[in-house]
Amino acid sequence: MSKRDYYEVLGVSKDASKEEIKKAYRKMARKYHPDVSEEADASDKFKEAKEAYEVLGNDQKRQQYDQFGHTGGQQGQGFGGGFGDFGDIFDMFFGGGGRQRDPNAPRQGQDLQYTMEINFEEAIFGKETEIHIPKEESCDTCDGSGAKPGAKVTTCSHCNGSGQLNVEQNTPFGRVVNRRVCNHCSGTGQFVEEKCSTCGGAGKVKTRQKIDINIPGGIDDGQQIRITGHGNPGVNGGPPGDLFVVVRVRRHEFFERDGDDIMCEIPITFTQAALGDEIEVPTVHGKVKLKVPAGTQTGTHFRLKGKGAPNVHGYGQGDQHILVKVVVPKNLDDHQKELLREFHEANGDQSLDEQQDNLFKRMKRAFKGE
Asked: How many CB atoms lie within 10 A of CB 25?
């Protein structure tokens, strides 16, 4: 069963502010919390609202959802997890009144960002490729503990295992107790007598990992793909972070992109514009025939329906827009010049005279204030 749209779940519009989203979630949480609601499906509705808020209440996750929907732009990717454990900021800087952070508690690993460049056609049609990224992995020798196998690990005597030290400081407002990371155990709360020889006690080693990635057709310059669980490893058994692949699309020498539409400029001759013609024009999908009516002027637009880029969310296909530019011939020989003079005398440029008369009349009325 497909998931409902997160905005629909919370009952807010797609341009709702963070405060509106938070207010809507609180209202639903109070209504459907299993401890207070007697509705049969209250638990499911509460979980659905919580999931929607975890995405829409986070700017980064919301941007990904708006771009790629529930798929996150990559099959098998969701929006679960966060951007690392920021901890309790108040407790980090000021002592007292708050909970003390457990240095040995599981923490999510850091997210990684990778920028890759693709060409115009690859952005239109998508591609499967692989990338190699530098990242940290848990050390296999010590299983991430940082200690030599079999070595003794003791509680840090300086912070008594808390991973933090209280530092008193006199200020104009009185004595303030600041809390900082213990410099003896680097915030782990433990002391390793013999460090692992492989990682030097860090518990992590630097590697290069190969990751297969599917770039969806229709992706545009600057959009990003989230790959869950391919960031740096978690701490103390916490989940790994995520990898965000930022896509950069190289400019095309002929085509330009405007959303899902593709723009291009096609030159035609004076004769083709005057008499009309059927010309062959390039598209990213191959060459197509375009009928140019007689009397076409430079700057005329034509649209080829469905010849643009696919929508990255799967909502249809864009069009190709063609701007016609009439090319004035240069370096005419004597015979060609004579033919144009004959045409000029035969036609008398009546249409041009009429346009000039209309222009002068409009200017005259403007100066008279009519």
From this structure: 21
